[in-house]
């Protein structure tokens, strides 16, 4: 009998239930997938708490890696025995499971050099880092990037990749322990926002000019400080809302603060085109396989411990990537 995490109402981590499930034969466009590792992402908490409304009851989780056990009609991109990884949104919901029926289209074949645990820890985070650094802005060596949550899973990949591109990275963290992690993974300077003013310190570090780009995954609590950290005509990239959604504001604010640019991208729109997704995945896999980017799996959980995993994630106890080991 297989197992999965399901929930019947939106709420705190306690709504998550570890249940026995039946997994049948794949239908058209589907595969039966045996998971080896499952990714734990902050976005999962948005589905669980209702920020991202979905029909209930439902499964949870959008990222995992494993082996194809069976394929349904019309599946041509993968075959039985292939090692694959995937990430997505509604279309891949249900990853917190030992095995499942999954749509074949989002699956990405894994090269031999990438272990399943590594893949589950980096597919969403790595592809996010890839589009942020390779698609969002024409970065040039010497540009300065302000990176919030620099010790998190996305942050550690972004900081390493940014250094490969010759960028100067200023990271923000909440503790001195996380500051040490961020520095070890490429941050040139680190701001501890628990006792430092981020905007003031960012301007001090840039001779009063401000940074070129901000990657802000925190949202409500950091939004204004991020805008105040930018140089004239700088770019604010809102990539998450860990502290809550950003309140409505008058766009005139962007003009008042230096003719700033603002974007709120979503990974789904950067991997919707199969060719673009394949190119981003290739770049990511090459960087990781070569050792130029290291994926830090700092928390491992059993699937039945999903409640504790979500508690740890929301209390900011985690660094790097977290996975469920199946």
UniProtKB/TrEMBL annotation:
<dbReference type="GO" id="GO:0070402">
    <property type="term" value="F:NADPH binding"/>
</dbReference>
<comment type="similarity">
    <text>Belongs to the zinc-containing alcohol dehydrogenase family. Quinone oxidoreductase subfamily.</text>
</comment>
<feature type="domain" description="Enoyl reductase (ER)">
    <location>
        <begin position="11"/>
        <end position="324"/>
    </location>
</feature>
<dbReference type="InterPro" id="IPR002364">
    <property type="entry name" value="Quin_OxRdtase/zeta-crystal_CS"/>
</dbReference>
<dbReference type="InterPro" id="IPR020843">
    <property type="entry name" value="ER"/>
</dbReference>
<dbReference type="GO" id="GO:0005829">
    <property type="term" value="C:cytosol"/>
</dbReference>
<dbReference type="GO" id="GO:0035925">
    <property type="term" value="F:mRNA 3'-UTR AU-rich region binding"/>
</dbReference>
<dbReference type="GO" id="GO:0008270">
    <property type="term" value="F:zinc ion binding"/>
</dbReference>
<protein>
    <recommendedName>
        <fullName>NADPH:quinone reductase</fullName>
        <ecNumber>1.6.5.5</ecNumber>
    </recommendedName>
</protein>
<keyword id="KW-0521">NADP</keyword>
<dbReference type="GO" id="GO:0003960">
    <property type="term" value="F:quinone reductase (NADPH) activity"/>
</dbReference>
<keyword id="KW-0560">Oxidoreductase</keyword>
<dbReference type="InterPro" id="IPR013154">
    <property type="entry name" value="ADH-like_N"/>
</dbReference>
<dbReference type="InterPro" id="IPR047618">
    <property type="entry name" value="QOR-like"/>
</dbReference>
<dbReference type="InterPro" id="IPR011032">
    <property type="entry name" value="GroES-like_sf"/>
</dbReference>
<dbReference type="Pfam" id="PF08240">
    <property type="entry name" value="ADH_N"/>
</dbReference>
<dbReference type="InterPro" id="IPR036291">
    <property type="entry name" value="NAD(P)-bd_dom_sf"/>
</dbReference>
<dbReference type="InterPro" id="IPR013149">
    <property type="entry name" value="ADH-like_C"/>
</dbReference>
<dbReference type="Pfam" id="PF00107">
    <property type="entry name" value="ADH_zinc_N"/>
</dbReference>
